[in-house]
Amino acid sequence: MDLAEIQAYLYQHIPLSMAMEVELVRADAEQVVLRAPLAPNINHRETVFGGSASALAILSAWTLLYVRLQQAGLHSRVVIQRNSVEYQHAITDAFEAHAIMSDARLWQRFVHMLARKHRARINVHANLYCHAQKVGEMEGDFVALGMG
């Protein structure tokens, strides 16, 4: 899948991504980078609404799992079970979320469990950036359900 196909999938299946004007910058097995402008995500203080920042971080992690599962030929429904976000600085302009899969052992355990039990859980981290400055981070537990 190329960037345009993945972005079209997000817009079609996760309409919030279109409303936020999310742009897919990078999507491969190593990293997903999503970018969103300030205007559709602004709050009353003229900074990014916390819910938009959280949504972009969750969406980047979800997309990373989606891409990895697609590349592995494992078609499964991925949902978020829980997450926490730490906001370190106000986000005053366009912002990005970077999700990275750094532990190959966790991924292998996740895939093995999914193949065995048709359900698996994995923890994914994403960092938020504005003007190349880290402004927050998200940690989320995601569950893959079923195999197709």
Describe the structure.
- This protein is α+β, with helices and mostly antiparallel strands and 148 residues long.
- It has four helices and six strands.
- A six-stranded antiparallel sheet has the order 1-2-4-5-6-3.
- The longest helix has 22 residues, at 50-71.
- It starts with a helix and ends with a strand.
- The mean pLDDT is 95.
Order of helices and strands: HHEEHEEHEE
Q: Mean of residue pLDDT?
A: 95
Helices and strands: which structural class?
Answer: alpha+beta
The shape is globular
Q: Output the strand order for the largest sheet.
A: 1-2-4-5-6-3
Strand content: 35-45%
Q: Give me the number of helical elements.
A: 4
Question: What low-confidence regions span 5 or more consecutive residues with pLDDT below 50?
Answer: none
The tally of strands reads 6
What's the N-to-C terminus distance? 18 Å
What descriptive keywords fit this protein?
4 helices; alpha+beta; 36% strand; 148 residues
Helix and strand arrangement:
Blueprint lengths: L2 H11 L1 H5 L3 E5 L3 E6 L13 H22 L5 E11 L7 E6 L3 H14 L1 E12 L2 E13 L3
Antiparallel strand pairs: 1-2, 2-4, 3-6, 4-5, 5-6
In short:
With 148 residues, the protein is of the alpha+beta class. The protein contains four helices and six strands; from the N terminus they run H-H-E-E-H-E-E-H-E-E.
